[in-house]
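Hey, I was hoping to borrow your eyes for a little while. I've been puzzling over a protein and I'd love to understand its fold better. The fold is given in discrete form, as structure tokens running alongside the sequence. I'd be grateful if you could look everything over and explain what you see. No rush at all, and the record is pasted right below.
>
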Amino acid sequence: MRICGICKVEQAINPHLTFHSLPKNSDIRKQWLEIMKKKDSIKTAFVCNQHFKPEDYRDFCDRPILKNTAVPRLNIEDELNTCVESIEHDSMEVINFQDYDAEIDDCTETIELVTDENIKCSKRKNDSSGDESSVASKKHCNLKKFGIFRKEDFNDEKLWNRFLVAFEEMRKEKVLLERKNKRLYEKVQKYKHIVEELKEKNLLTGLVADMLSIR
């Protein structure tokens, strides 16, 4: 059974995770062992993918394969998580969505914790058919219109905590999507470079070149 040498998660309990074995390069291997706080004499150890960034992986691979220079990190999860306790340090906790206007300008979310008096909701209609059995439209609200939320705006402590969790999950998802988009963009640029290079060497012409051209 494989166990991560850093966070101690087990593969049997977390089958969705990828576990990487120690690298063969002695210098990189030593860095891995230092992070895991293991002795140099250890022969087998694993680190899960939660401690690597997208740029640590090779491109154009069918399965996750680390680059030869990839070194695990202890604080990957810390970059994505904001501790709820630190947000709730006093009774005047504030979340200002206006600070995120530039980042979530086009983002919409369904929020059930605020009243209709404080927000303007728009209904998304189903234009596909006039059938009476069509699905009812949902209400969506633009986050940048929310302004500032304080703990005292919520009647129940549980609702406030649920709100914090929902906000943090949305932020984490945004960070992950940005990383994924960046990685995909870099792949597209590499493919474009390969296609152009093949064209210059006359190794790619005619219909095949047109099919592979990325616009």
User: Anything to note?
Assistant: The radius of gyration is 24 Å. Residues 82-93, 101-143 have pLDDT under 50 and may be disordered. The chain has five helices and seven strands.
